[in-house]
């Protein structure tokens, strides 16, 4: 249940989910739940040696695999809920882009809320948060709850076209301008 995927995300979904990573400047890109690295390589190609890429992975085996395959990525074994601490310990500013591969459908309400709060608190005001959902689960309670939470937590939430080339088909949520309360 911590993986919640039948297969790694495909190249088409990876390109769409990482499209917010700028091709210029020195952005701080944070990847949550990179798993086996389906988005990691695409982020690295978009960065082309610029900026900083921090990948936060809870599964130690996945984290080691990722670190071995992508030495330029700073892989941190941590829970996404602790994102503020991860960035603070590294004296990093707010992220320009946060790309999530987290299994939202497997999260309880409180866990979804806590991770989204961490994202909003660590994303730059003009930053972008992207995450994805499988089309076939979009109408399930956890997926509807996620979309409501995204719309409550961000000024803008765009839903992309369906990526039919992914197994299973998926779509991406692109969220801008986090609404930070308290």
Can you describe what's shown?
Helix content is 32%, strand content 26%. It is α/β, with parallel strands linked by helices and 182 residues long. A seven-stranded mixed sheet has the order 3-2-1-4-5-7-6, with helices on both faces. Strand 2 (52-57), helix 3 (60-69) and strand 3 (74-77) form a beta-alpha-beta unit. Helix 5 packs parallel to helix 6. The N and C termini lie far apart (32 Å).
Tally of separate helices: 6
Helix/strand-derived class? alpha/beta
What separation lies between the terminal Cα atoms? 32 Å
- Mean pLDDT equals 93
**What's the story with the biggest beta sheet?**
7 strands, mixed
Q: Low-confidence stretches at least 5 residues in length (pLDDT < 50)?
A: none
| Strand order across the largest sheet | 3-2-1-4-5-7-6
Rg over CA atoms:
15 Å
**Helical coverage, percent range:** 25-40%
Shape: globular
The helix/strand series, from N terminus to C terminus, equals HEHEHEHEHEHEE
Query: In total, how many beta strands?
Result: 7
Which strand-content bin applies to the residues?
25-35%
List the helices and strands and how they pair.
Layout: H1 11-17, E1 28-32, H2 40-47, E2 52-57, H3 60-69, E3 74-77, H4 83-89, E4 95-100, H5 109-122, E5 123-134, H6 141-153, E6 154-159, E7 170-178
Parallel strand pairs: 1-2, 1-4, 2-3, 4-5
Antiparallel strand pairs: 5-7, 6-7
Helix pairs in contact: 5-6
Record keyword descriptors for this entry.
182 residues, 7 strands, single chain, alpha/beta
């Amino acid at each position: 249940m911590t993986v919640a995927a039948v297969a790694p995300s495909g190249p088409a979904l990876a390109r769409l989910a990482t499209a917010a990573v700028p091709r210029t400047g020195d952005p701080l890109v944070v990847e949550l739940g990179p798993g086996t690295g389906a988005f990691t390589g695409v982020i690295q190609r978009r960065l082309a040696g610029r900026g900083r890429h921090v990948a936060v992975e809870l599964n130690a085996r996945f984290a080691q695999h990722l670190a071995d395959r992508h030495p330029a990525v700073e892989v941190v074994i941590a829970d996404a809920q602790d994102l503020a601490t991860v960035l603070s310990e590294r004296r990093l500013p707010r992220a320009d882009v946060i790309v999530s591969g987290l299994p939202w459908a497997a999260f309880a309400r409180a866990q979804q809320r806590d991770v989204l709060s961490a994202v909003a608190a660590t994303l730059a005001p003009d930053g972008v948060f992207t995450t994805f959902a499988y089309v076939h689960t979009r109408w399930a309670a956890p997926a509807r709850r996620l979309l409501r939470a995204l719309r409550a937590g961000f000024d803008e939430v765009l839903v992309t076209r369906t990526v039919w080339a992914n197994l299973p088909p998926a779509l991406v949520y692109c969220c801008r301008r986090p609404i930070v309360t308290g």
